[in-house]
Amino acid sequence: MELDIVELSRLQFALTAMFHFLFVPLTLGLSVIVAIMETVYVMTNRPIWRQMTKFWATLFGINFVLGVATGITMEFQFGMNWAYYSHYVGDIFGAPLAIEGLMAFFLEATFVGLMFFGWDKMSKVAHCIVTWLVAIGSNFSALWILIANGWMQNPVGAVFNPVTMRMEMTSFFEVMFNHVAQAKFVHTVSAGYVTAAIFVIGVSAWYLIKGRHEALAKRSIAVAASFGLASALSVVVLGDESGYSATHSQKMKLAAVEGMWDTYKAPAPFKLVGIPDQEARETKYAVQIPVAMGLLGTRSLTEEMRGINDLVIEAEARILNGILAYDALMDIRAAKGAATPEQIARFEDHSADLGYAFLLKRYVDDPREATTEQIAQAAEDTIPGVLPLFWAFRVMVGLGFMFIGVMLFFFIRANFYGMRFPRWSLWAAVFAIPTPWIAAEAGWFVAEFGRQPWTVDGVLPTALSVSHLSVGQVALTLAGFVTFYSVLFIIEMGLMLKYIRKGPFMDVAETEAWNRRHNDRLSGRTSQQPAE
């Protein structure tokens, strides 16, 4: 096994996936905010809300198109760079992706054109329904993709077939309602809502600083702050649910995130900060909050959370058991369809740990020939990189609590201080625009890097999942993707900045006339007095 191929393939997928996720959260959140704004327009018939809907929908459209382009490109890699993975688990992983394309993506694609070009061809109510269908389609896309990803984190509803040498689905219901997938979905979608809320507040704050489009900006802040506050609170609550799920399905990931080398007496403390040293097997300079991790991770004061050292010992035992499964599998394969019931029963007794035997493929072709040292090293390989996981998680959590503060501040100022915002807060909102993306990328880093060395946790190691390509081929496609995505990023930023600077350019005369009449009413003028 050429590890260079594995690392290059991982790097390529990481770069393309993380780049794609620059577009996803804004698409998820902005679609709902736009739908809310149009709903207010339908209810009030005020042109300012129609203008707001069209303006933010324009930015949504730019982001949506580039998100689709990068998402399609990313999925090609399953066939290019991860051929054995696609062969091994394609029956399960492919199903939700196919449903996403057939149901959710086509729902978006069908109605997004009507949303942009149907303003004067449909009734207000019909157009509003279309906008909500676009938002629902965007969120359904996330659901099915996260069901697929959640299965990789917690492979349920499937078994390994020793005859076909593939995983086969046994229960679509279990795959769909996998508790890890559901927790990831609501957490990810809520994070997308926060991203869009921060974006809308930041852009609106910039307009207020410049003294432009103030009516639109203030109303946009009011909507985004209310929507964002509920979303930010949801992210924290639903993130806790994701952590609780990991306690049962991905104990090594959670121990690494916590930098917990030894098993604490229940309830475990939470390390606020520290410097994990993987070589020394300790977290230096740790500042701990007693009991907190036990409550968050197990929701009890008596349940134990196992540390990395104990989990490595457990992994070694599972590798030994996996070798027995591998031996039984080879006997079944040698029988060429005439395996005895005893051979099949022996395999089934140990099959849950077959993936652990595959960890030895990195060191020896036949796991049954592995030495004690190789088994011990394979068990060590189940420890992901603790230091980056430890701090990525804390960056994500710290920013999450910051978002609650930002949303609460703008919510209070919008609703109880007559839309008056201190200038420093407006500048802070502008500079805060990139922070939700930092939090989102940190969260995905924890989710995916923390799963290593597995592509499918406990089932298929990453080192076995790659295609049989040369280093040059992968390096060439990596360079191509980096170039292509760099061009797309420049296009995205150029278009977004162009239309933000341009501001709302549709329905200007109608909106300004309505605003003048509205201001006249507020100032006590009669409706017959001409507005200046």
From TrEMBL:
Concerning Pfam families, the annotation shows: Cyt_bd_oxida_I
Tell me which GO cellular component terms the UniProt record holds: cytochrome complex; plasma membrane
Molecular function in Gene Ontology: electron transfer activity; heme binding; metal ion binding; oxidoreductase activity, acting on diphenols and related substances as donors, oxygen as acceptor
Topology versus the membrane: Multi-pass membrane protein
Domain of life per record: Bacteria
Task: Please give the chief subcellular localization of this protein.
Answer: membrane
What name does UniProt use for this protein?
A: Cytochrome bd-I ubiquinol oxidase subunit CydA
Q: Which organism is it from?
A: Rhodovulum strictum
